[in-house]
Design brief:
heterodimer; A: about 375 residues; four-stranded antiparallel sheet; B: alpha/beta; eight-stranded mixed sheet; 12 helices; 8 strands
Chain lengths: ~375, ~260
């Protein structure tokens, strides 16, 4: 790993997204390299945060020391990854320890050097960086990045949105919102699990779906003001993050590219859905033609050329395909039953054709001769 | 007094020859004196059901029609020619004769080319009925309404039409019935063969009777058992308790009681 790679690694740190390039360059110049033997402990939980580390080569483990003296490994980290970004600006105590897993070369950036570089900038970025670090500590940025409609947003926009997230704890069985309520916010499930339900015509609860951590409910509510189309109930104690629509629309005003990203995402979804609609139309034609097995094979095959990373879309499409295959099987079965049950035979005779064919026989000379002969023969046989 | 019964179907594959052979055997077992004329000169086949092949056949209907022999020299006594098949063995001593058609392709094509004289056929059948003292004479006809079939019709006391329950057979049967009525065939019966089990047989019988105004003597099921046996034996003799065989027996009774 070269110093250029160190620069790239620092650039990619969530913490440094808003730090200008020349400041990163200065940090790279001040970085030290340490050669560590396998099993070297660099710091422990509770140590003051005095440096930011980036692994040059080798691997380390991030550990928590349990009260009984054993250690719990939180993570294993390799080259190019930064360690300590959450606490390096504040200097707060370390949230975990770090131990090398093999002989490892590691870049070390002293906290004082980082702060010195930042203080040399025209704008004071430190308060913002503290805010980012706090959000990182909560894991909000990571959560947001994994949500399709936010996945392409810039780091700055993500930090802004992360700042608007409001934690909502939910007891088991607690209703988040009811079908028909005003759709005023998006919810992200940070932890736990919820069910999405509707009441059918007879008032029986129908569970449409169950979703868990990292998934969202009500994202369309961010755009339109339509009432909730279903009820959402926590099925285990859960923690959700609420993004208010008005806050979100404010962010769109601050970061118009969010609107572009959202449009891009929705147009992707429309294309994705259209291509599936085409498949479904094709499949319907085949079903009408009775080519059931062919359709089942086609639907089972993964669609090429289209790859939506959107899990919700995938889920919907999967549901549709499952419903379709189920439908085919039911139609097939009913057809089979019908075949077995048909009791009544319909007899249809084309009377015009019947007359025509009879006349073509009876109007011939042969037939006239035959009739005459018949009469004579019968008289003879009577004797 | 003997009776001529023509068995006909508008299309091939209705099981006409098989039904003819089984009905003739049933009547013969009841002590009737029966002859079967294979007038399907274009594609003869009923002899196989009686365990006969070309080598065992002497004179044929063709020889008689061309004046080569008397009709009595064509009639083959089945009771004397039975092979070792469990069903056919029951025919030992029965008064049952077969008047086969020639299997020789040259003779088949000659009939197709020249036809034959209705008066010759009529005279032959009359002589046969007299000399063998027949009660029943079955004519196994060629499918469709060609001239030879029409000749058979004017000689018949009864026309038994065999059809399968499908649209083409329904349509063709309508034409056959109209033509037969025009020729004043005295009696007509319909036999529905190869009906699938899923149909309501009583309903079929009622519907077919209503649409043609002709008595339906039976509705026979399509049975794999019959297909399995093929032409190896006479089914109703071999398996008398089978549903198909019992229906054949009732049809034989119907024919017997019609005269």
């Amino acid at each position: 790993m070269t110093t250029m790679d160190l620069k790239t690694a620092l650039h990619e740190l969530a913490l440094f997204q808003i730090v200008p390039e020349e400041a990163i360059d200065k940090m790279v110049q001040r970085a030290e390299i340490k050669h560590l033997d396998s099993g070297t402990r660099l710091f422990s939980l509770g140590d003051p945060s005095d440096a930011l580390y980036v692994i040059k080569q080798g691997h380390v483990k991030i550990v928590l020391d349990e009260p009984d003296g054993s250690e719990r490994i939180l993570n294993q980290i390799g080259p190019g990854i930064g360690i300590g970004q959450i606490t390096v600006i504040s200097g707060d105590p370390r949230t975990a320890g770090m131990v090398t897993l093999e002989p490892t070369d590691i870049y070390l950036l002293h906290r004082e050097d980082i702060l010195a570089v930042l203080q040399g900038l025209p704008d004071d970025l430190v308060p913002q960086l503290r805010e980012i670090a706090a959000r990182l500590a909560l894991g909000y940025l990571d959560i947001l990045k994994r949500i399709p409609i936010f996945s392409t947003l810039s780091h700055e926009a993500l930090i802004e949105i992360a700042g608007r997230l409001e934690p909502v704890p939910c007891e088991e069985g607690e209703t988040l919102f009811y079908e028909g309520d005003e759709g005023d916010a998006l919810y992200i499930i940070e932890q736990g699990r919820v069910k999405i339900t509707k009441l059918d015509a007879s008032g029986t609860e129908l569970v449409l779906n169950e979703i868990g951590a990292g998934e969202t409910v009500g994202e369309l509510a961010l755009i339109d003001r339509a009432p909730r189309s279903a009820t959402v109930v926590a099925i285990v104690p859960s923690r959700l993050l609420r993004l208010d629509r008005d806050d979100f629309l404010d962010e769109i005003r601050n970061y118009p590219e969010i609107a572009l990203d959202i449009m891009r995402l929705f147009s992707q979804r429309i294309r994705f859905a259209s291509s599936y609609l085409e498949r479904i139309v094709d499949a319907s034609r085949e079903i009408a033609a009775g080519n059931y097995e062919q359709v089942k094979q086609q639907l089972a095959a993964p669609q090429t050329g289209m790859d939506s990373r959107d899990r919700a879309d995938r889920q919907l499409i999967d549901n549709l395909l499952t419903a379709f295959v189920g439908m085919i099987e039911e139609v097939q079965q009913r057809e089979q039953e019908l075949k077995e049950q048909v009791q009544k035979l319909t007899i249809q005779i084309d009377q015009a054709r019947r007359r025509e064919e009879v006349e073509s026989i009876t109007n011939s000379d042969f037939f006239a001769d035959l009739k005459a002969a018949a009469q004579k023969l019968r008289e003879e046989n009577e004797d | 007094m003997s009776h001529i019964i023509s068995i006909h179907s508008f299309r091939g594959g209705t099981g006409k020859s098989n039904t003819t052979a089984n009905l003739a055997c049933q009547l013969a077992l009841k002590g009737q004196r029966v002859a079967v004329v294979d007038s399907d000169i274009q594609s003869p086949g009923i002899h196989v059901l009686f365990g006969l092949d070309d080598s065992k056949m002497g004179n044929t209907l063709n020889d008689f029609l061309w004046g080569r022999c008397a009709i009595e020299e064509v009639a083959l006594n089945i009771g004397e020619h039975i092979e070792d098949a469990p069903g056919r063995n029951k025919l030992k001593g029965a008064d049952l004769w077969l008047i086969p058609s020639s299997m020789k392709s040259g003779e088949i094509s000659r009939v197709l080319r020249d036809g034959y004289d209705v008066n010759t056929l009529n005279k032959g059948l009359r002589d046969l009925r007299k000399s063998l003292d027949l009660d029943f004479l079955f004519i196994d006809t060629h499918p469709g309404l060609n001239e030879e079939t029409l000749l058979s019709l004017i000689l018949s006391d009864m026309l038994l039409i065999i059809l399968r329950p499908d649209q083409q057979d329904f349509q063709g049967t309508a034409v056959t019935i109209d033509v037969a009525r025009s020729l004043d065939v005295p009696e007509m019966r319909i036999l529905v063969n190869k009906a699938l089990d899923r149909y309501d047989f009583d309903q079929i019988r009622q519907d077919v009777t209503d649409i043609y105004g002709v008595q339906v003597v039976g509705v026979l099921p399509l049975t794999e058992d019959l297909v399995d046996l093929g032409s190896a034996d006479i089914f109703s003799l071999r398996y008398p308790d089978h549903q198909w065989s019992r229906t054949i027996a009732t049809i034989a009774d119907n024919i017997l009681n019609s005269f």
